[in-house]
Amino acid sequence: VTVEGKISTTLMAVAGFKSMDVGATSVANVGSQALEMVLVLDNTGSMAGTKIANLKSAAINLVNIIQSEASDYSKVKIGLVPFAEYVNVGMANAGAAWIDSTGPDAVGFAGCVGSKNSPNDEKPGPAGGDYPALGGVPCNVPLLPLTSNLESVKTHLAGMVSTGATYIPTGLLWGWNLLDTKAPFTEASSDVELKKINGRKALVLMTDGENT
Question: Is the peptide bond before 184 cis (omega within 30 degrees of 0)?
Answer without folding.
Answer: yes
